[in-house]
Amino acid sequence: MQQLRTSELLVTLPDDGSGPLHGRLEQELRTAIRSGRLAADTAMPSTRALAAQLGVSRGVVVEAYEQLVAEGYLTGHERSATRVACKAVPPRPARDEEPSAPLLEFDFRPGRPDVSQFPRGAWLRSLRRALGDAGNEQLGYPDRRGMPELREALATYLNRVRGAAADSGQVVISNGFSQGLALVCEVLRADGARRVAVENPSHAGSRQAIIAAGLEAVGIPVDEDGLRVDALEQARVDAVLVTPAHQYPTGGVLPPERRAELVAWATRRNPLIIEDDYDAEYRYDREPIGCIQGLAPDRVVYGGSASKTLAPGLRIGWLIVPAAMADRVAAVKERTDNGTATLDQLAFADFLTRGEHDRHLRRMRPIYRQRRDALLAALARHLPALRPAGTAAGLHLLAWLPKGTDEEAFAARAAERGVGVYTLASYRLAGPVDAGIIFGYSGLSETAIETGIRRMAEGEGHLRAAS
Amino acid sequence: MQQLRTSELLVTLPDDGSGPLHGRLEQELRTAIRSGRLAADTAMPSTRALAAQLGVSRGVVVEAYEQLVAEGYLTGHERSATRVACKAVPPRPARDEEPSAPLLEFDFRPGRPDVSQFPRGAWLRSLRRALGDAGNEQLGYPDRRGMPELREALATYLNRVRGAAADSGQVVISNGFSQGLALVCEVLRADGARRVAVENPSHAGSRQAIIAAGLEAVGIPVDEDGLRVDALEQARVDAVLVTPAHQYPTGGVLPPERRAELVAWATRRNPLIIEDDYDAEYRYDREPIGCIQGLAPDRVVYGGSASKTLAPGLRIGWLIVPAAMADRVAAVKERTDNGTATLDQLAFADFLTRGEHDRHLRRMRPIYRQRRDALLAALARHLPALRPAGTAAGLHLLAWLPKGTDEEAFAARAAERGVGVYTLASYRLAGPVDAGIIFGYSGLSETAIETGIRRMAEGEGHLRAAS
Question: Using a CB-CB distance cutoff of 8 angstroms, which residues of chain B are in contact with residue A338?
Answer without folding.
Answer: 175-176, 178-179, 312, 315
